[in-house]
What does this fold into?
Amino acid sequence: MIGMLLEIDYTTDVRVRKQAESLAEAGVDVVVITPWIKGKKRKEVINGVRIHRFGKDYTFKRRGFQDILTALFFINQKFLREVKKCIKEYGIEHLHVHDLPLAKTALKLKSQISGKVILDSHENYPELLEGWFLTKKKWYINLKNKLLFTPKRWTRYEGKVMRKVDKLIVVIDEMRDKFIKKYDLNPENVIVISNYENTGFAKLSEQQIEDKEFTFKEDMSHMVYVGGIGVMRGLETVVHSVASLKVNGKNVRFLIIGNDTTQYAQVLKGLVRKLDLEKEVLFLGFKPFEIVNYYMQKATVNIIPHVKNGHTDYTIPHKLFQIFLSKSALLVSSCKPLKRIVEECNGGWVYTASDSEDLVKKYTEIERDPEEVQRRNQNAFDCAMNKYNWENEAQRLIQFYKGLNG
It folds into this structure.
């Protein structure tokens, strides 16, 4: 039995769901231990995976307070008590902890299990914290961050727990190489389970639903971004590129699909107003999954414009492979994994990260050569179907766990 520790809602975490459900399908017992959210069942089984929810309603405020308590000593006492009970209740052998904040909590329980403690590092957490400091917040949040959430403090913690866990799972080769070198880890104890998509997404992407709230105009080209709206997403670079395209007489729209109520989204909207681009840059808000497919396939080009830094150079987004499988044109920034995979597959275009002029150059290439676009779209699709897909990764994860029990 594997006990997975997860601090957010299981139903919304794509990576955790794919792992847990693939293991369950292979006959491996999995229980996900996660805080209870109002409206959710305390216990249920989803696609063969047991879900165990505990505690009071895990509201945004309650989680913020818990983050402070956890950061004081890097121990989540509520998780510690609950997982201790679950080890006995479910007969848990291995603890699979999702992401850095809960790692020390899992290590505290090592003596109570017969198996291993596995840390699944979804992202470079200390580098991710740097992004928090780039966005202005209320004074008391800034004070909390300066005291408890500095990248330097969390880097020290990261090094300690990564040397103590039995196995480390990371999302991309670049991250694996970085951690091995940085913390002098045994390469045999670090494995890559990436954020690839199921090949079935190719069929699913065909089941798109037209969005009645927006019309793609035939006489315009469209850049489409789907995802979070934050300072490290590189959206300012795209906005500046749209301004350049407009000056040069290009009839282009930039569609941003994602939660546009964040503090940074308001900053981005301010930039759009300043550059007089309200007709060219449109914030469409959150869209259901089926409608997102519609935008992906109607786009002149889908863009992943991440800023290049210590976080984005060592992680990879699910949407890269979703775009591959939807046979849609793709333009990405030069973050290491994005650049490596897109160039290896010859499945899109790469521009120099944060360089709006190079973005304009590559976008113009895409616009004027539809035959090359079709060739690269097919290349990307073939690459995902044959190599970069979840079915392959799931087998590696299953073999990894069978090896632990062997």
